Input
Amino acid sequence: MLKREANGLAISPQHFAALRAGVQGERHLVPAGPLHHPTEQEHNHPLRQRLRLRRGTATRTSSQLSNRDLSNSAVAHGVLSAFRSVCGEDGVSSGEAVREQHGRDESVHRCCPPDVVVFPRCVEEVSALAKICSRHSLPIIPFGTGTGLEGGVSAVKGGVCFSLRNMDQVLDLHQDDFDVTVEPGVTRKALNSYLRGTGLWFPVDPGADASLCGMAATSASGTNAVRYGTMRENVLNLEVVLADGRVLHTAGKGRRPRKTAAGYNLTNLLVGSEGTLGIITKTTLRLYGVPEATVAAVCSFPSVQAAVDSTVQVLQAGVPVARIEFLDDVMMDACNRFSSLSYAVSPSLFLEFHGAEGSLEEQVKAAEDITRYNGGSGFQWAKDAATRERLWKARHDAWYASLALRPGCKAYATDVCVPLSRLPQVLVETKEDLIESRLTGPIVGHVGDGNFHCLMVVDPDDPEELHRVHLFVERLARRALAMDGTCTGEHGVGLGKRALLREETGPVAVQVMQGVKDALDPRNLMNPGKILLPREL
Output
């Protein structure tokens, strides 16, 4: 049955879907990274089958086919015209470079570009574009800054990428209430630059300069989580465009209470939804006072157990630690080589304390006493910014130091999290597994909350090594689950951890999640293929 667009052109969803299947040539619909293999349903998906039929005659690249057909087909032209009527001629692109830029993130998953990229400038345009996509059953993939680590922007079913970079305004700052509302194009660094001089800051720091709405979408956290919490604890309200174009305010339009007991917690439902339930177009965030003083420290230990014991005792003593990071001996050696440092090549803790000037020295002394009791040595601490930066250089350079171990390779970060008491065991077993598997994986962890990363350095052109990495990652995740932990502390599920999600939460929880998805997005248009495994069509 034909559906009629606003400009009067009749467009069949089946016609556009067939066109989309026919023009994409050699596209890999599903990334073939070490953490994701197509399921049987994905392999037999009608769209994939149509692609296989076309491949026998396709001789051009996917972008050449797409550009020609999208510009010449009357059907596709009508859809593109409808998009342009919303966000202007410059707000729509089907160019190869633009599509490929928006089909990948920082993960190891293969680039999977959308058919079209749109650049809305306001929530009204996002809503109007979503309604067009809904009318023609076109998948919608939100895109912030592309810093995700789980393939969340991969257009596994083609469709329309909503690039939100033009929505980059800080909308409402309430200094006396310690909150701010921002659009999805505002990054963490941009917000803190805007706040400079106000005495306020936003502390959640995932490392990359990610967009704040993207951080909400993945429930990101980072090095400061031990004191300030994750995004989940710091989001007060969200504005979300649903699959049918309706606009939802999860806590009520314009509301920003520090707490509420009113109904279901829709804000927490949307935080961590990875674009599968809607497009986040505004987020209202908690802010904090800039600490009066900051002190950094570093200390090395004879064993992983000693480092973790020190961490637990520091937290139990009520020391106001803001960051407490663990680097294993392999990582310390890599950082020494990369940054010309001279730290001990042994398990080490990097700490940072925030508080009042008069009390911090006493607190740092308490932390030093605890570390020495557990066999720690080489305790160094610094107050001024320049010295703190030098002290933390090893932690800041960890990613690049890992890559430097094997030039030309790529890195993938695992993301398990376990209860603190299980951390020594899981770390020791993981290091043994790395050695037995002949894999390079320096370890860095947010040890204050039991979250750690193996920075797997892998040759992307070596299938056998990729297979070993894949098996190692699955063993690590299941090891964490066996210790009452999670397969992902902060990166999200994305493409690669969907089966693990079922193992972690159980079938009933996944059924409830699927029910929520069906209620908000019954045709599976919002970022399809992420979080939940596909069902039989």
User: Anything to note?
Assistant: The longest strand covers residues 279-286. The radius of gyration is 24 Å.
